From TrEMBL:
Pfam families linked to this entry: Methyltransf_23
Region of interest (Disordered), residue spans: 1-22, 262-292
Organism: Calocera viscosa (strain TUFC12733)
Protein name, UniProt field: S-adenosyl-L-methionine-dependent methyltransferase
Chain coiled-coil ranges: none
Amino acid sequence: MAQPGLFLGPARDVLDPSSSKKPKRILDIGTGNGSWAVEVANRYLGAAIDIVDLVPIARELPSNILFFRQDVNRGLPPSMPDAEYDLVHARNIQLGIPDYPKLIDECARVLKARGLINLIEGDWDIFDSDGNPVTPYKNPGWYNWIQAWRGAVAHQNIDVEAPKKTEQWLKDSPYFSEVKATARWMPIGPWTNDAEMNRLGEIVWENLKYLIPSIRPLLTEYYAGRSEWADMIVQHAWAELASPHSHVFMRWRFFWGKRNSRVYSPDGPVPRKPRKGKEREKPQTESSGGRA
Ligand SMILES: C[S@@+](CC[C@H](N)C(=O)[O-])C[C@H]1O[C@@H](n2cnc3c(N)ncnc32)[C@H](O)[C@@H]1O
């Protein structure tokens, strides 16, 4: 995924090796093929980078990276101590995380005070050149694919609006301060007049080349085993990617915040900060149906 830089927010201060005798510690959650972590490891040779994913990583890793296999919906690996990391990064993982605020709490557990969280997620939408979601009339291939995907994702109890809610989730967390968010339109393909945008467009295009067919199992399950529907949706989206007849975009969102000094509560959910104009939420317990 194309992001503005390796890190978001005041990472340079947080990762400045002169600020501590111990190596800086970085955690990448849902690392995938580890491309981001390997780039960081090669650039910050003195840092120790831990990476986590559900599935084993196939590539050879630099000596300053350690892989952990874990479903983070069950929490981060228990061997990861509290208040240990200087920076926690997670990019494009919401599809596997039904309770994202709970994961934000886990990030708070392992971050040091003043440590930095970096989160990156793309909207589950494809947009036309007016910035509106694509329609079935102009972009049927994209439209059917994104609708099927959203249906399948909702079917898995994943909130399809999660990318749009992430800024508020981070702001509501009692553990983070100085929360900032930004969004960026990314062309699908190199069709703009701007060289940098075209570079991003090529990366987005390449990502989609793999993403479009990769959701086929999710779609097959959603269509109750009728794999011909899943095949058709994938093929039509692929055709629109390969031979675009109009300019389309994706929208990526970038979030960062500083871990504050509030001590992590191991006793379960903590009250969230009140939103403007709303009463402070009462602490929830598992038995009252609150977030675990
Ligand atoms: C779309 S890939 C993104 C990979 C990488 N972050 C990147 O941006 O290149 C999502 C990754 O998150 C991992 N993932 C999803 N849900 C997860 C979970 N519950 N626990 C651990 N890893 C998870 C997937 O296995 C996959 O490798």
